[in-house]
Amino acid sequence: MKQNTDPDSLAFARQTWRTLEPYHGGVYFSPEAASQYAELGVDARTGYFASRSAAIGAAPADLVIATFYNFNPELVRRAIPAAWEAATPQQFTAARLAGMDASLRRILGADISSPAMARAAELARTAAEATVHHPQGRPLFAAHAALPWPDAPHLVLWHAQTLLREFRGDGHVAALLTAGLSGIEALVTHAATGDVDAKVLRDSRGWTPEQWEQAVLNLRERGWLDEGPDLALTEDGKRRRAEFERTTDQLAALPYVTLGPAACAELRSLAGPFSLAVAKELVPWVVDRLSAESA
Question: Cys bridge to 27: 68, 100, 118, 265, which one at CB 3.0-4.6 A?
Fold first, then answer.
């Protein structure tokens, strides 16, 4: 697969992904999805690990650790394989889709049947289907790409963004490995940019304060972080982080380059309001970013 390194292509590709990402990401905070998992006999966190990895099948904990990358392995092992004793992977996959269906219907109302939704779904599916012949090195994406497409446009849009998200995510893992960063070290560099609070990243991935501090010390020794009291990247750390983010963008560009800049702009225009509505309800901490980017 040829990588597109044109800066303009990478820019509109990244912008399109960022605009639509909350539309997919709402599933991780959806109370309706959590209720679906509860009906299967597991809590929301176990439901997250099980429902996202269920496309692979009854995966062992080590496979989930490998593909999810930045979670504390002990957190994963508390959920997997116990989840498969509660329900089958197929049940978790169905529960995830049903939960997001209910959330989208509640949040978007009549918009799920609008011409704008139908067109956004068509464009997103075209982009997503450009990826399906390139599963090599992308195990989590490949598993999700093998799932059947839903019929309703609002779910087509959601499934398309799921594929685009996992396609990008698997490439991001490859970029992190090339940069020599472990999962927790990648989180620390993210926190050092100031985009997301360090405690949120640490706690949501199940790392202890002691493990976090050791990762900080390791990165300072390697020249990624300043020695001062605040968590901040050195100039070399900024350069190296920019390098692996650019690699991620290159590896993720194919579907958006296939769609083209005009269609990507149309997709952002159509799906942006849906994504923003989901963010306001389920992922409020990204609302300011989305509003600024759409201004």
Answer: 100
Question: Closest by alpha carbon to 120, among 290, 263, 21?
Answer: 263
- Arithmetic mean of pLDDT, 178-189: 97
- Which token pair is 58? 């009854």
Distance CA 104, CA 274 (A): 9
Per the DSSP assignment, residues forming a β-bridge with 233 are 225
Rounded CA gap, 29 and 23, in Å?
A: 11
For residue 42, how many other CB atoms are within 10 A of its CB?
A: 23
DSSP state of 285: G
Spatial distance between the Cα atoms of 295 and 290, rounded to a whole number of angstroms: 9
| Contact yes or no for 130/72 (Cβ under 8 A) | no
Backbone angles phi, psi at 142, to 5 degrees: -60, -40
Tokens at 198, concatenated: 């360090």
DSSP 36: H
Phi-psi region of 147 (alpha: psi -120 to 50; beta: other; left: phi over 0): beta
Q: What rounded mean pLDDT belongs to the chain?
A: 95
Separation of alpha carbons 82 and 36, rounded Å: 17
pTM higher than 0.70, yes or no? yes
Structure tokens at 185: 């070290």
Query: Considering just the CA atoms, what is the radius of gyration of the chain in Å?
Result: 19
